[in-house]
Amino acid sequence: MLSHDRIWTAIDELAERHGLTASGLARRAGLDPTSFNKSKRQGADGRDRWPSTESLSKVLQATGSSVEDFLSLMGGKAPLARGDLPDSAFLPQHGSIPLLGFAQAGAGGFFDDGGFPAGQGWDLVDFPANPAAGGNVYALEVQGDSMMPLYRDGDIVIVEPGAQLRRGDRVVVRTRDGEVMAKVLSRQTPKAVDLASLNPEHPNRTFGTEEIDWMARIIWASQ
Q1: DSSP-based helix, strand, coil % in the chain, nearest 5
Q2: Residues 195, 182: Cα–Cα separation, whole Å
């Protein structure tokens, strides 16, 4: 039977096999370097946090490993089954994706500590194409005029947690205080994140990294 510990152990062993640390493996796969840190393997509430299927797929591709290789590191003999990972690791990518309003996104219980959907209360929205690299994505509905003129009230933005972030990317950010906003990433250092406002009537923002709960790249928006 697959378990939380065995999956993370397999990731560590895969990294070691290629002469990498867990952070180095994440970086090679195009993920946030902290994605596989031990501190990220449990949420703030102490519950186990699982790597997403997108992260596993990128790691296997980056190392030239097969699913069978990964299973062998866990001592498994069968392909990964849906029942072996929590529901939050499997998001529908064709036909519909999870949808939540920005106001709801500020409340607790809708996301895990990686910024992926969790818990109940999500709606669904049709999205016929598999966006970007085809990873785990979800939709947020814009509410209010704070993101004008780029995003209007009722627009839908599709975000991809875990995607590599670059200066100039449009991002959705959630702070540890529960504030959710769409901004442009101006600068990111180990200590701070500078965000430019989409609406000139709203100020730019700077946060210490410890103030950020998660940050996800916007990959598509309805206009």
Answers
A1: 25, 25, 50
A2: 9
> Residue ranges of the domains in the chain?
4-87, 91-221
Can you give the pTM of this predicted structure?
0.55
- The answer to whether the CB of 158 falls within 8 A of the CB of 131 is yes
Q: Is 174 helix (H, G, I), strand (E, B) or coil?
A: strand
Helix, strand, or coil (residue 99): strand
Residue bearing the bigger pLDDT, 201 or 208: 208
**Equal fold, 4-87 vs 91-221:** no
User: Is the CATH number 2.30.30.280 carried by domain 4-87?
Assistant: no
Count CA atoms closer than 13 A to 5's CA, side-chain side: 1
Tell me which fold the domain 91-221 belongs to.
Answer: Umud Fragment, subunit A (2.10.109)
* CA separation for the pair 205, 53 (Å, rounded): 32
Amino acid (one-letter) located at 169: D
Here the tokens at position 113 are: 């500590």
16 token code pair: 């070691």
Higher pLDDT, 198 or 1: 198
Is 117 within 8 Å of 98 (Cβ atoms)?
yes
